[in-house]
Amino acid sequence: MSLPAAIPVMILACLATAVLGLLLKWIDRKVTAMVQWRKGPPWYQPLADLAKLMGKETIVPENARRTGFLIAPILGFAAVSVAAAILWVVNIDPSVSFVGDLVVVLYLLTVPSLAIVLGGASSGNPHGAIGASREMKLILSYELPLVLAMVPAMIAGGWTLKLGAIATAGSSSVGMTIAMIVGFIIGILCTQAKLGLVPFDQAEAETEIMGGVYCEYSGPPLAMFYLNRAMMHAVLPLLLVTIFWGSLSQGVGHAVVWVVLYLVVVVVVTLVRNTNPRVRIDHAMKFFWFGLTPVALVAVVLTLIGNGL
Amino acid sequence: MDRRKLVEAVKTDLGDVLADVVEPNPRRVYLTVEPDHTLAVNRYMVDKGGRLATASGVDCRDWIEVCYHYCFDSLNVVITVKVRAYKPECEVQSVAQFLPAASFIEREINDLLGATFLNHPDPRRLILADDWPDGVYPLRKDYDSETHSNTGRAVSPGLGRARVLSALRRG
Amino acid sequence: MNWKLWGLTKSPWVYHVNTGACNNCDIEIVDCLTPRFDIERFGMVLAPTPRHADALLVTGGVTQQAKPRLQEVYRQAAKPCIVLCVGACACTMGIFAECYHMVGPVDKVIREVDPNAIIVYIPGCPPKPEAIIAGAVKGLQTACAALS
Predict the structure, then answer these.
(1) Is the preceding peptide bond at A199 cis, omega within 30 degrees of 0?
(2) Of the residues A132, B39, B88, C25, which has the fewest C-beta atoms closer than 10 A?
């Protein structure tokens, strides 16, 4: 796609993802309230949170590294916006897809977590340092099962790394279907960690380390981190459903199931958040390395067997 | 062993060391000891199976009375060991030397009443503010909130009454 | 009312500070979060750090040890931030008015740092959660009127 056409597409995708992300944040809080037998906040609550945060003053602590502190949220926002744009474009028109764009999207989606690490580490606060180190450990733990879970889909698309090809391919054997379902579930659990939701929110442990990485943030930088989290909440289920089910443009019935699966991911993430306590960081690492990674490897082996090697 | 046997055993074993024994009701025994014997009596109480529930301090006019309350839970009796720390030095041996449970409460009594516990393993200030002046003990009867006033403390009309009451007690 | 103040009324994040309270008021504040009273309907969330706070819920009359710490927490809070004095002790030192360790009620301590601080009084020992919610709502309305 040419550059003059790409810019409005990017802006539109960024806005759409932001709006969708804030809506999903509200759905998360409302479902949490319903699970806890309360009424939750009204539908405009995330928007009110953003508006309020934009109106507060920005405080940069004396001990903080000013550049890293202030640039971290912007880095995250940029990365999420581009990843969102690629995914939306592939969903609407799978032929506009270049070789290796899955790799690009996966790389871009690690940047918000790295931005969190940068922000926490440049806070000049021990809580921020602890949060940053925990987030680093988490990144090292959940990225591997996430990528391994997507390998069956890559094989199904014909050993390809093009998102468009992966999205339009179906699965061709029972083994592959089982592997895709297992991969989907692993993807949901890794989404839980990527979004920083209980049980894997050790980086921003609210009651434990005073907000961890977000400890010293206030005002518009915090608003941008809030928006980053909302947009990640919109983009990660989008990635999962695009890879494991398909794109939005393959027929009405296909699109309906797409929407249902998207909502399933969102609701499952919220329900897991409401029914689990926060685990210790070493338990989380063990869960990902010795729990999810072997299961993902088994799924890959199943796919290879089902594919006839 | 039941309650009565325990109390009899205490009175027999410690008889010559005890200055006074008061039993207001079957479940409550008060033993008064001179400060020289405090370590021996407290060690005896712990050896007999008593659990140090807490300690308390009272500002009697010429001494500070430190009371160690030992609960014998299965026998339904609480035996209190009262030790007198005579003024003006108000010194008494610290029970925390061999009983860690007494460590914090002795620090608190030191802070608020000024009883000095000799050989305390950790004699730091516990509950008074960091910038509270040394030597001023708020819970003593002769503590005068007027002479030691907190910086910027709001003065309320009730203070006059408190001053009159403490003057009555002194005179 | 401009959009910043609209955001402040609709999404006040509260940070709870205990400056020497007996914990009764703290328990009532936590009760407000339970399903019976549910202050999350109003967007009120417990903030983990003073920097995220729009309202400081201060309980307890201020003790000598807590005074510099309360002032530091108020300075760290990103303005605009209102102070809600919850309980009789926070409003007037309560029954501890003549005690040796009390320095002053919360408004006196905060005004040393910021004479223009917006302070809301919620008396009671402890105030009922309904009173805390009513006080918070009134306080936010007054704050917006004062800020605009």
Answers:
(1) yes
(2) B88
